[in-house]
Design the sequence.
């Protein structure tokens, strides 16, 4: 079977070498398409591939149409909104992610953003400490639970809201369960966002929730830009000069926000959550192993469509 790794932004060499070893030791063939700038190169490369590994590359319906032999696509990372899962399903192509492989990298970044925002983005002036502050975890999956664990080391009180996880499970992980998003935002000085971008969650974080935050409230978003209602975020921050927003993705209205809010707002130039050598390697190797298992035994453990 031919396995294509298509990465506009390539894996680290150690990850690529590891992927090659896994693929070739299993009797399969590896093909690389790295640093491509023309989507037509992607169409050509995927035409005879039986499996596909991507990072943030968009696997659109057009890519799926070009990939007539494709049986499986794996996104090396947790989020998979860059894959057209409906197009995959229509062609009986298995779509997977690699949950947990980037979790620690994202969790550490979330904590780093909290410190950065509460220290006035390292500009002169009196900031605040994390110790004793209340942290709300909005969605308590792998990343959320890691953020909670690290935050407790800073002496923070950790609360969580996740309608898909039981209160007993949260308690077992040292997280105080709350019954609604409204309760989470009204209770916590920080809220760390870890919800996926779905039809239900897109633009769901807006004025109603943010305006309820305690004094010196700070929203940290290492999830997805699409879950933020940006005009309502601006409204809340205009009315509340104590609110802060730290994001791992650049909002569409970033210029406006920087002009209006100065160091109360910060966004990374490009999504950085998984940009560590360790996460890069872990996710790439996991993707390769999942494809090999799929071809060998039909394993679809991490199927998302």
Sequence:
């Amino acid at each position: 079977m031919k396995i294509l790794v298509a990465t506009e932004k390539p894996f680290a060499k150690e990850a690529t070498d590891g992927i090659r070893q896994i693929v070739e030791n299993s009797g399969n063939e590896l093909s690389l398409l790295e640093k491509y700038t023309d989507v037509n190169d992607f169409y050509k490369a995927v035409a005879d591939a039986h499996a596909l590994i991507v990072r943030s590359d968009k696997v659109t319906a057009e890519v799926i149409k070009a990939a007539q032999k494709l049986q499986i696509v794996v996104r090396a990372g947790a989020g998979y909104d860059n894959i057209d899962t409906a197009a995959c399903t229509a062609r009986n192509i298995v779509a997977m992610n690699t949950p947990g492989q980037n979790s620690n990298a994202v969790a550490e970044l979330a904590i780093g953003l909290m410190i950065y925002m509460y220290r006035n983005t390292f500009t002169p002036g009196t900031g605040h400490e994390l110790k004793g502050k209340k942290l709300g975890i909005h969605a308590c999956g792998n990343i959320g639970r890691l953020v909670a664990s690290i935050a407790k080391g800073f002496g923070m009180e950790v609360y969580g809201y996740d309608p898909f996880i039981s209160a007993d499970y949260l308690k077992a992980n040292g997280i105080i369960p709350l019954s609604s998003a409204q309760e989470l935002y009204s209770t916590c000085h920080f809220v760390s966002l870890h919800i996926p971008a779905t039809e239900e969650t897109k633009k769901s974080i807006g004025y109603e929730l943010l305006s309820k935050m305690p004094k010196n409230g700070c929203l940290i978003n290492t999830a997805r830009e699409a879950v933020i209602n940006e005009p309502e975020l601006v409204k809340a921050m205009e009315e509340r000069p104590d609110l802060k927003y730290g994001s791992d993705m650049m909002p569409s209205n970033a210029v406006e926000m920087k002009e209006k809010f100065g160091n109360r707002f910060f966004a990374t130039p490009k999504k950085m959550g998984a940009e560590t050598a360790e996460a890069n390697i872990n996710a790439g190797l996991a993707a390769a192993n999942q494809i090999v298992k799929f071809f060998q035994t039909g394993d679809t453990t991490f199927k998302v469509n």
Summary: The longest strand covers residues 2-7. The mean pLDDT is 96. The chain has twelve helices and twelve strands.
